[in-house]
């Protein structure tokens, strides 16, 4: 592999936490990422990672689901509830439900063991690229407030305000998909366009999970959506008019 530079966040090398109890796997992941210019810290337990997170905020956490002191799904929940970093789930579990649950809780993507290191790096780079594009202040003059169907999204803080004035902060993955919809309303968008990834596997459920989460937030009846329509065989369509300020 030929090392290439990481996506810079704020001008510094992206910092990745590798949370994996298997020392050999953790070493392989950390060494591979360092070859590509990323800074890494390795933790062999959820407790150690949670203790470090408030002290040094990473740009991305790679979380193994089979940790010795806490189920990885619970760790993903705690990380996404309290921090804004990206989360890549690393799992040897064969059950789709575990991966879907991790995405439901705010994970950005997942890699199944055994994995190809090139795929791992590609997924890390994709998450960090999306984070960089969504980060406030990255593009001067970027439109910030989007209004649609009584809702408002503050793109700088990922804060969604309902027609009743209630506010909730979206996870990065949800906010990115919603932002794509708001930038291109009344257009059929493919799963690849929405997630920003080429050659997406037909079995990849990540975009479907994010659409489901957005529908639960935005739709009066998520089972019969009016704002985010499924166009079978093509993708999804956002039906509301959008104004930016």
UniProtKB/TrEMBL annotation:
Specify the domain of life of the species encoding this protein: Bacteria
Please give the DNA-binding region boundaries. 143-240
| A single MF term (Gene Ontology) | DNA binding
**For the modification 4-aspartylphosphate, which residues carry it?**
64
Q: Which residues form the OmpR/PhoB-type domain?
A: 143-240
**SUPFAM superfamilies given in the database record:** C-terminal effector domain of the bipartite response regulators (SSF46894), CheY-like (SSF52172)
- Entry's Pfam families? Response_reg, Trans_reg_C
The record places domain Response regulatory at 15-128
Report keywords, A-Z.
DNA-binding, Phosphoprotein, Transcription, Transcription regulation, Two-component regulatory system
The protein depicted here goes by the name DNA-binding response regulator
Q: Which organism is it from?
A: Sphaerotilus microaerophilus
Q: What is the lineage of its organism?
A: Bacteria, Pseudomonadati, Pseudomonadota, Betaproteobacteria, Burkholderiales
